[in-house]
């Protein structure tokens, strides 16, 4: 048996300074995002119109992603293995569910960014232009965009579970070596 194996620990490091910095970022982003939502709801001028709600949707989606990364998930990425583990408030949840939550949040930010761009695009082009869609087609497009992200989430969970199986086999092989 290798003597160096006796001194190796299988515990995951906790990085207290990283956690402290991320908690400061979490509190700061909570305050900044709350002020942003307040300004959109109560301080935006009347000519903003319906764009206010698309902007609010985007800010809420971005805030959720920001708060998840800096507080709830707090990922520690292991770049050499393309893997990560969580140090956040939600570290008791299985990693496959955390992966789906993280990808869903990223998908929400992508959806809201596309919606903001599309809304501004339709405001700029004239109403008689060929690219101008009817209200039904716009709603249909928004639903399709959300469905596209939601249907990709089961694949993310499946791929993560498959990786867990591979990691278990590698661990078993490494235990047999020592």
Protein architecture, described:
The chain is mainly α. Helices cover 70% and strands 4% of the residues. Strands 1-2 form a two-stranded antiparallel ribbon. InterPro entries: 7TM_GPCR_serpentine_rcpt_Srh.
Q: Which residues form runs of ≥5 with pLDDT under 50? A: none
Task: Report the C-alpha radius of gyration, rounded.
Answer: 22 Å
Strand order in the sheet with the most strands: 1-2
Helix and strand succession?
HHEEHH
- Classify the helix fraction into a percent range: 55-70%
Number of helices, where a helix is a run of at least 4 consecutive DSSP H or I residues: 4
Question: Kindly, what is the distance between the CA atoms of the first and last residues, rounded to a whole number of angstroms?
Answer: 6 Å
Which short descriptors sum up this protein?
about 5% strand; about 70% helix; mainly alpha; two-stranded antiparallel ribbon; about 180 residues; 4 helices
What is shown here, in short?
The protein is mostly helical and 178 residues long. The chain has helices spanning 16-43, 51-73, 95-124, 135-177, and strands at residues 75-78, 83-86. The protein has one domain (9-177).
């Amino acid at each position: 048996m290798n003597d160096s194996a006796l001194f190796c620990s299988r515990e995951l490091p906790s990085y207290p300074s990283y956690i402290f910095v991320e908690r400061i970022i979490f509190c700061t982003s909570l305050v900044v995002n709350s002020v942003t939502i307040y300004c959109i709801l109560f301080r935006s001028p009347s000519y903003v119109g319906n764009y206010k709600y698309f902007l609010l949707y985007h800010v809420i989606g971005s805030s959720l992603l920001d708060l998840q990364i800096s507080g709830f998930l707090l990922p520690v990425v292991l770049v050499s293995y393309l893997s990560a583990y969580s140090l956040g408030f939600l570290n008791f949840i299985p990693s496959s569910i955390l992966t789906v939550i993280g990808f869903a949040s990223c998908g929400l930010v992508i959806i809201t960014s596309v919606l903001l761009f599309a809304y501004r695009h339709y405001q700029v082009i004239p109403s008689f232009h060929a690219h101008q869609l009817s209200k039904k087609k716009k709603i249909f497009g928004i639903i399709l965009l959300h469905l596209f992200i939601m249907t990709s989430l089961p694949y993310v969970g499946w791929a993560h579970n498959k990786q867990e199986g591979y990691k278990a086999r590698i661990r078993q092989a490494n235990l047999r070596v020592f």
